[in-house]
Task: structure prediction
Amino acid sequence: MDFVWTPWRYRYIANAAKEERERCVFCDALAAGDDARVHIVLRADKNFVILNKYPYTSGHVMVVPYAHGGDFAAFDQDTLTEMMILAKRIQAAQESIYHPDGYNLGMNVGRSAGAGITNHLHLHLLPRWTGDTNFMTTIAETRLEPEELDETYRKLRHALGLNGNGTSDPTVSLGGGAAQGSK
Result:
């Protein structure tokens, strides 16, 4: 039998439930003060876009409200509208970079619905290709990623018209209020 060693996955699996009870990965990323290091691609008025640390495919991002909470119905219309506007903008950037065959766009709200992070709402957006699920995924339950997160971050920022190294302010205003500050 062949083995593909993925020790970073064990850290995630072993600590996911514990960390979720103790802290919020999205709130921690916002508080880090280093958007490039934590892969916050851009910030808008009510939401931010961050790379998925454990992506299903290259380009897998999440659109996340600044407001902490896991109940979809509790979020105001402006936050949810901006979430969709950002998803549309990110999809256009992903299209220009990756030229995928399709996209997955969705939310899992609650543990029984498949949410890995239940305490902070987030919308997944990821490019998909015909045949991107192979025996490694379906039989070995292992994914192979051809692109490092830093490279994905750089490509997305460039496609969005933001500099690739995170030194400029990635905050964008989509109208209707003051944007959240960033580093």
Notes: Helices lie at 7-22, 25-31, 35-38, 77-98, 135-138, 149-159. The radius of gyration is 16 Å.
